[in-house]
Write a structure and sequence with these properties.
InterPro entries: Acetyl_CoA_COase_a_su, ClpP/crotonase-like_dom_sf, COA_CT_C. By secondary structure, this protein is of the alpha/beta class. The protein is about 50% helix and about 15% strand. The chain is globular, with a radius of gyration of 22 Å. The N and C termini lie far apart (about 65 Å).
Length: about 325
Amino acid sequence: MVFLEFEKPLESLYEQLEKIKQVGKEGDVDVSEMTRELENKIKNKRKEIYSNLTGWQKVQLSRHPERPYTLYYIEQMCRKFVELHGDRYYADDKAIVGGLGSLDGQTVVILGHQKGVNTKMRQYRNFGMANPEGYRKALRLMKLAERFGYPVVCLIDTPGAFPGLEAEERGQAEAIARNLFEMAQLKVPVVCAVIGEGASGGAIGIGLGDRVYMLENTWYSVISPESCSSILWRSWDYKEQAAEALKLTADHMHEFGIIDGIIKEPLGGAHSAPEEMAKLLKRQIKKAIAEVQDMTPEDRIDARINKYSQIGVYERVATEDAK
């Protein structure tokens, strides 16, 4: 098990539990009572730790190396899945995966960022940072869904769009802007969920939908806490203060009206019970699709555009001339 810094008290308890089980196994001793006591301690300590997480701690959880990624959720949620590749312009971006899936008998186009489960795969997937061809591939799949009347499901988990020179040369900003323009007008239901990191345009590039959700221990912001800290304080040492100031948690996003709901995670985070998390995510996605599927395409598009038009707060300030 991998323990984050704020989970260190749990690590020592798990070590004790493992030692007791080993003693019982090697010495043929009944340690069931001691095991139960320690398991109860672990459960109570876990509740204590996770009942009041800070913004930075939730950022750490969203990046947990054992946290499930898009392909895991697709495998768990879809009985059948056929991956489709390429943007038909340049290449196949491995940082975004997508294709046709069967969600309890309903065909959907499901796509999302994929970070990779180990060092080699993370390099192969470019750590979930998509190039322009990734967003163009996503748009191609969405247009395919529109042609055949399939709902679109987008799973968001990226530290941002790839910032390399070659990505800019191939039109990174235009590709993301084009996706936003086209997603606003898709005639089929679009459901989005932030399953990990939701950073900057890399996230919003596949994040405009009729319903947008966030898992409980995820974040959504125009910039990461580290980058914000380096800009404002010229150092990464203030990332915790930056995380609080950015108000990037699911609770904040729901309060601001940017997302439509929060999907609770199992105690300890999505990585502690990935199968259960997949079931919870699937249930919410199916519910969201059902809510908007019976609307006419025109009504759905109008509601989607109105939803985004109403995000944000402004205050009219009287000028001296107006007075």
